[in-house]
Amino acid sequence: MKDKILLHICCAPCLIYPLKVLRESKYDVVGFFYNPNIHPYSEYKRRLETLVNYSKIVLLPLIVDTSYDVESFLEGQLKNRDERCLFCYSIRLEKAFEWAKKNGFINLTTTLLYSKYQKHEKIKGIGYELSRVYDINFLYFDFREGWQEGVLESKALNMYRQNYCGCIFSEREKFKN
Question: For residue 118, what are the CA distances in angstroms to 113, 114, 125, 164?
Fold first, then answer.
């Protein structure tokens, strides 16, 4: 086995392909869920429940940070209106790096790198910046190449699949028309 790696997870469907790649690369993967961006709270609970259930199936140790400070998240989103996604990526990844540092991990990556809908280069940049701050390796993988594989597997598992990124703004954009 290679080193342990902390994998920040946004949701269960986005975990499928990255977990496969990391395990094939012989990493000892530990999952980390911290996503105060998901709204409404019922959606947050549903995504978390789906992830917990899936992590049991694939025998993935899972750390769940259930702090859900919606007020601070929304304040940050409003202050950073033009770069709201960057704010969202940053707070979630920083929490993962903090946890990794406190718990002796030297490697970290994120399932955010799986979605073809995310701002991939921005996530990568934030990861490398936090890597320098916390002295933890940010391992970049372009998991998007397995997008279709993950979609098909999640459907075969009859897994709950959300239809918007998570925040109240992305929900509005999805359902506005």
Answer: 8, 8, 13, 11
**Residue 38, number of CB atoms within 10 A of its CB:** 26
Among candidate residues 138, 156, 137, 154, the one with its CA nearest the CA of residue 146: 154
Tokens of 119: 């701002």
pLDDT in tens, 32-53: 999 999 989 999 999 999 999 9
Task: Read off the DSSP letter of residue 135.
Answer: T
Distance CA 64, CA 141 (A): 23
CATH class of the domain whose range is 4-175: alpha beta
Helix 120-134 to helix 84-102 angle (10° resolution) is: 30
pLDDT tens digits, 68-114: 888 888 888 788 777 888 999 999 999 999 999 999 999 999 999 99
